[in-house]
Specification:
Blueprint (H helix, E strand, L loop, with lengths): L7 H13 L17 E9 L20 E3 L8 E6 L5 E8 L7 E6 H6 L7 E9 L11 E9 L2 H15 L2 E6 L5 E9 L2 H13 L5 E5 L9 E2 L1
Parallel strand pairs: 1-5, 2-4, 8-11
Antiparallel strand pairs: 1-6, 2-5, 3-4, 3-6, 7-9, 7-10, 8-9
């Protein structure tokens, strides 16, 4: 299913040693990939136990967001991924580094893998195409919330959402379509990952599971549910 991401620290150390032995040479910044450029190969996907951990670009990895890991593309590169076995496509943002398994070119988030129907097989032959970022990306606020649960039954998510809203003042449900669908319960909307972690610690102290996730947009104050 997933690439062997345990090798990441080793690779990072090796890269650091290589950089320190360059005799003071100035390292050039990576050039953005050319729009329309393509790459073909095998894709894999990753979820737990990396869900909720910090990705290579410093953000919190959320397997229900449309992101991906690539070995060399600059962070925030947008890529259209086409599953060559069924023609399905998904657009992802490069957020992490990997996969560190030979013969694979990209690690998709679980949500992205689900979009192109490769959850079951675990891997698929794909074509990557570099595209322009969506026009509204720069206007999206950087906010962080705390995920306290994910349920296949909507009523269970609604009960937890009501409880969290009563305790912490702000909680909402995020619906993810699928078979079966999933309802995630998120608490708060913090302006930094540090503030999000502070809230998560408060929630964990009360005995509930909690981890920080990144929001793509500000919550709608008139609704506790987001589709």
């Amino acid at each position: 299913m997933c690439s062997v991401r345990m090798l990441v620290p080793i690779v990072m150390i090796a890269a650091s040693l290589g950089a320190s032995s360059c005799g003071g040479k100035k390292i050039k910044a990576a050039k953005p990939p050319r729009l329309g450029s393509t790459e073909s190969g095998i894709a894999s996907w990753y979820g737990h136990p990396y869900h909720g951990r910090r990705a290579a670009n410093g953000e919190i990895y959320d397997m229900e967001k449309l992101t991906a890991a690539h070995r060399t593309m600059p962070f925030d590169t947008w890529v259209r991924v086409k599953n060559l076995s069924n023609g399905r496509t998904v657009v992802v943002r490069i957020q992490d580094r990997g996969p560190f398994v030979g013969g694979r070119i990209i690690d998709l988030s679980r949500a992205a893998a689900r979009e192109i129907e490769m959850i079951g097989p675990g891997i698929a032959k794909v074509q990557l195409t570099v595209i322009q970022p969506p026009k509204d990306v720069q206007r999206q606020a950087e906010l962080f919330a705390v995920q306290v649960g994910a349920f296949r039954e909507q009523r269970r998510a609604e009960a937890l959402q009501r409880e969290m809203k009563e305790r912490y003042g702000a909680a909402r449900m995020v619906h993810r379509a699928g078979n079966p669908p999933v309802w995630r319960v998120l608490v708060g909307a913090e302006e930094s990952a540090e503030k999000g972690e502070s809230l998560a610690q408060r929630i964990r102290a009360s005995g509930s599971a909690a981890f920080v996730v990144r929001l793509d947009e500000a919550p709608d104050e008139n609704s506790d549910r987001v589709n």
